[in-house]
Amino acid sequence: MRLRILAVGTRMPAWVEAAVHDYARRLPPELMLEVVEIPLGRRGKGTDPAAAIAAESQALLKAVGARDTLVALDVAGEPWSTPRLAAQLASWQAAGGNCCLLVGGPDGLDPACLQRAHARWSLSALTLPHPLVRVVLAEQLYRAWSINAGHPYHR
């Protein structure tokens, strides 16, 4: 199974890439974690933010496979506990498909992404910087796997 973090934004700091790579490396070969970066939509003076959000969302959805489970990270989504994430991960693995976790840009996700998503997950009630979201996601996915595998990482 592949877990894909589809995230708007490129050129992350080295510490972000190192941390995500570390958690991805710890996962077993049958559970591959990868990050797919989507370029940020054009923003600035004289541009329409809605057009940038729509372009980002179109690129995100293009990266999703037809049979992939799609989870949108959304501030208005449902908060999941760590045990809930572990149960979700077990369910995704049992289904045999891949899972894509969508991380929008600074203005969030277009309604098209939210409508297509199988679930909407609020990672935190706090506002987190986008680089940190990638690290938290990778760590939580590793923690969820460790719970399911009986690994001592999660005590």
Give the H and E element order: EHEHEHEHEH
End-to-end span in angstroms? 25 Å
The CATH homologous superfamily is named: SPOUT methyltransferase, trefoil knot domain
Structural class designation: alpha/beta
Oligomer status: single chain
Structure write-up:
This protein has one domain (2-149): 3-Layer(aba) Sandwich (Alpha/beta knot), CATH 3.40.1280.10. Helices cover 43% and strands 22% of the residues. It is built from 5 helices and 5 strands; from the N terminus they run βαβαβαβαβα. A 5-stranded parallel beta sheet has the order 2-1-4-3-5. The radius of gyration is 15 Å and the shape is globular. The chain starts with a strand and ends in a 6-residue tail after the last helix.
Please supply descriptive tags for the structure shown above.
Alpha/beta knot, 43% helix, single chain, 22% strand, 155 residues, alpha/beta, globular, 5 strands, 5 helices
